[in-house]
Amino acid sequence: MYKLKFTLIFCLFLVSVNVQSQTDEQVIKDIYKKALTNGKSYAWLNHLSNQIGGRLSGSLNAEKAVEYTKEELEKLGLNKVWLQPVMVPKWVRGIKEYAFIESESGKTTTVNICALGGSVATPALGLKANVIEVKNFEDLEALGKAEIEGKIVFYNRSMQADLILTFEAYGGCVNQRYMGAVEAAKYGAVGVIVRSMNLRMDDLPHTGSMTYNDLPNEQRIPSAAISTNDAELLSTMLQLDPAVNFYFKQNCRQLKDVQSYNVIGEITGSEFPDEYMIVGGHLDSWDLGDGAHDDGAGVVQSMDVLRLLKESGIKPKRSIRVVLFMNEENGLRGGKKYAELAKQKGENHVFALESDSGGFTPRGFSFDCNDATFNQVLSWQPLFKPYLIHYFEKGGSGADVGPLKTKSNVLAGLRPDSQRYFDHHHASNDTFDAVNKRELELGAATMTALVYLFDKYGVNPINKDTQIKD
After folding, report:
1. Is 328 annotated as catalytic?
2. Would you say residue 2 lies in a domain?
3. Domain limits at 107?
4. How far, in Å, CA of 177 to CA of 157, rounded?
5. Helix, strand, or coil here: 182?
6. Is there a single domain that holds both residue 284 and residue 433?
7. Could you tell me the pLDDT band of residue 21, with boundaries at 50, 70 and 90?
8. What's the 3-state SS for 259-315?
9. Are residues 392 and 303 in the same domain?
10. Could you say which of 72, 328, 329, 354 is catalytic?
């Protein structure tokens, strides 16, 4: 037994020495090789998607996902694995929604809708009213209460198709989904229908969070998304006959908050254990699909970062944590709780990387950091060039890691190719079959490489330390 232990320790020592003697180029090449030939992310995602499914915050599936990912992290032999309690909202969709457009002659055409997350239900028998189409909140103001009261407001502003960065297109129209009910209620609207946040024309409604702010319960109006094809149909029918009615029925409910957890695993740093670097994604998802791209992909990629560091024999100087955040989709409670407790404990988070843009081919990263650190990052571009990773820009990071921002630390976001992301985002086709194994594994390797470099060289560059070692 003693000989076996000695042999194992000696082998691990040799692996560690070998890594230390390698150039950055060699270490990163080995990371990619291990991810592509012996990756775990795809198998983990298969279980999350196909054995558990959609993980709506506060649901039984979310609880199962917490248990599963904790067990898998424990198998990796990390220094610590634990659950961090957080209270989360519990909104339930109820039975499937139903809607139709009714012409003046009484003819009805069924359309595809879904309740927006956080919405109230319609009356038990549903809601039917005339429709008023608008593009933005300015249109509401121009029409005024006289034109809107007693009607269903139809927000029909599409994502801007000529923007190459599709997240910019999303950002340009998502306020109608999030704030649409609040704004429409000011003018006496009885309901809201929102064009799905989707660049593709299809029959799939896309859900997402909405808010009532501090609107009293009796003034809250039901809010639903309509598929892009049916949004076009409704708009055309309104042009032909402004008197058409819209009927929809949804059965969603907001229940009391329940306890859930962030799932955390750590490799304790060998030199600076009190400096923390985290990598993560959000464990919750919407309920229409199985949350494979949003954000099962980010979860399993983040888990694989720690596995790949260990498999590669890398002994981090700083403590590396994987954090699987709960409740990003409809409250951000997990990210806020993690940051709150980190501040209470005086933890120094020097770096945080989030993957929450789908499991597509990685293109690079965006960084929220100072100019000196960004110049350090740019000096690493040659290391990523063989893997066709070229996008290094200053910009946003991720919703969950945002609360950790300080004046001196670095926040980063993985940036995969985004052209197909919104075809699946918050819709019933966000499923495991839409994720490509190789693309997912490339993302995990790319994240691991960046974590390795930041751990090795730090986030406050010194000239001699920022040069790539040959």
Report:
1. yes
2. no
3. 94-251
4. 10
5. helix
6. yes
7. confident
8. EEEEEEEEECCCCEEEEEEEEEEECCCCCCCCCHHHHHHHHHHHHHHHHHHHHCCCC
9. yes
10. 328
pLDDT of 11 higher than 60? no
Length of the chain measured in residues: 470
Phi-psi region of 300 (alpha: psi -120 to 50; beta: other; left: phi over 0): alpha
Question: Could you identify the residue written with the tokens 């699946």?
Answer: 424
- Phi/psi of residue 266, nearest 5 degrees: -140, 140
Q: Could you tell me if 420 and 275 lie in one domain?
A: yes
CA dist 48 → 254, 285, 287, 296, 354 (Å): 25, 11, 13, 7, 19
Structure token pair of residue 231: 């949004």
Q: Give the CB-side neighbour count of residue 374, counting CA atoms within 13 A.
A: 14
As a whole number of angstroms, the distance between CA 25 and CA 452 comes to 11
Predicted confidence band at 20 (pLDDT cuts at 50, 70, 90)? confident
**CA nearest 132: which of 142, 123, 122?**
142
Q: What is the CATH number of the domain that holds 76?
A: 3.40.630.10
The pLDDT score that the predictor gives to residue 18 is: 63
- Residues 458 and 465: beta-carbon distance below 8 Å: yes
